[in-house]
Amino acid sequence: MGLHTILCDYLPDNPGQNFSDEYINASTTDKEHILEIAKEKQIDYVLAYASDPAALTAAYVSEELGLPGNSYQSVKTLSEKHLFRELLRDIGLNCPKVKSITGDEIDNISELEMEYPLVVKPVDSSGSKGVKLIRAITEFKEAASYALSFSRKNRIIIEEYIAAKGAQLHGDGFVVDDELIFSCLGDHHYDATINPFVPYSTTWPANISEDILDRINRDLNFLIKRSGFKTGAINIEVRVTNEDEIFIMEIGPRSGGNFTPQVIEYATGFNMVEAALRAAIGEKIEIGKLFRKFSSYYVLHSGKNGTLKKIAIDPKIYSYIKEKHQYTEVGEEVTSFQGANAAIGILLMVFPTKEEMEDVMCDIEQHIKIEVE
């Protein structure tokens, strides 16, 4: 596209620096430092990808320098779970009963006065890190301490668990001038034997009716308009109850992790990464003619800590694999899959039929084996 790219990231060995024109070792959570760099480099646009903290910094820098982008407050509202719940409640959309407290208040809690089970999680983390389900007040302090360990703001929320009819829905969407012009939702899948809140896969498209999908998109569009978020990619999580009530669990003001935009491009033909760049530089976004294919990602993961010995993939599924991204090599340490940061790697897959996708993904442990010692 002819853009000169400057990458900011705190990891000295990050792979992006091999593709960017310039690389500066700086944390994207340090918004004042990133602002200084932006001024020094006289940048024209700033974008974040698949990271809530980085999205906040991008919005802050854009607002401070008068650059194209979303307002800091809109991104903050979508990024921080207690603010997002307040927005849902204020505009009349379904919202679980919720309580938000700081770490200093934990010892003062003797009862939560909500119906168990409850979910305890940090307000400002992503990748399912720090999330616990509790069934009694006796489990609260341990879960709260765990959630706080992942919170930079020293704040957590406790909310009533929303049981879903079928899978939790997950995917990405794209917003232009506060209109949801594209969305693609799939079914989340979890390994309850390791952690029931950390998804190891999403399969597209979602197994829901067109009527429910239309209702979800109407609610999403209404929420986006009221949030103040104007343009860019969003990551979506939705639950539909047995009574067909729709609960928008989260909207992240950025692309989804686990290569979600890339899998959705395989599923539909719409390239959200390119769209985000074109939107940033003021070009018109063309959706084009979409197609419908059956696609998924699968997170290579371990149920225990140890040293990676082998990744064995059944040759029968080779034809479905479009991309393999491996983060941990044989002989390196792995940890139990308690958050997205424990991923060993990712497979992106495309299937000719829904039946083939379901056959493989419902029995995926027989096709992919991770050996740890």
Mean pLDDT equals: 96
Largest sheet: 8 strands, antiparallel
Report strand order across the widest sheet: 11-10-7-8-9-12-16-14
Strand content: 25-35%
Number of helices: 10
Give the overall silhouette. globular
Helix vs. strand class: alpha+beta
User: Uncertain segments of ≥5 residues (pLDDT<50)?
Assistant: none
Query: What is the radius of gyration computed over CA atoms, rounded to a whole number of angstroms?
Result: 21 Å
Q: State the share of residues found in helices, binned by percent.
A: 25-40%
Query: How many strand segments?
Result: 17
- State the order of secondary-structure elements, H for helix, E for strand: EEHHHHEEEHEEEEHEEHHEEEEEHHE
The span between the termini is 46 Å
Identify the notable features of this structure and list them briefly.
373 residues, alpha+beta, 8-stranded antiparallel β-sheet, 4-stranded antiparallel β-sheet, 10 helices, 17 strands
Report on the structure:
The structure is a single chain. By secondary structure, the chain is α+β, with helices and mostly antiparallel strands. It has ten helices and 17 strands. Helix 2 packs antiparallel against helix 3. The longest helix has 18 residues, at 210-227. The protein starts with 5 loop residues before the first strand and ends with a strand.
Helix-strand blueprint:
Blueprint: E1 6-9, E2 22-25, H1 31-41, H2 52-65, H3 72-79, H4 81-91, E3 98-102, E4 118-122, E5 132-134, H5 140-148, E6 155-160, E7 169-176, E8 179-191, E9 195-204, H6 210-227, E10 232-240, E11 246-252, H7 260-268, H8 272-280, E12 294-300, E13 306-313, E14 321-326, E15 333-334, E16 345-351, H9 354-361, H10 364-367, E17 368-372
Parallel strand pairs: 1-2
Antiparallel strand pairs: 3-6, 4-5, 4-6, 7-8, 7-10, 8-9, 9-12, 10-11, 12-16, 13-15, 13-17, 14-16
Helix pairs in contact: 1-2, 2-3, 3-4
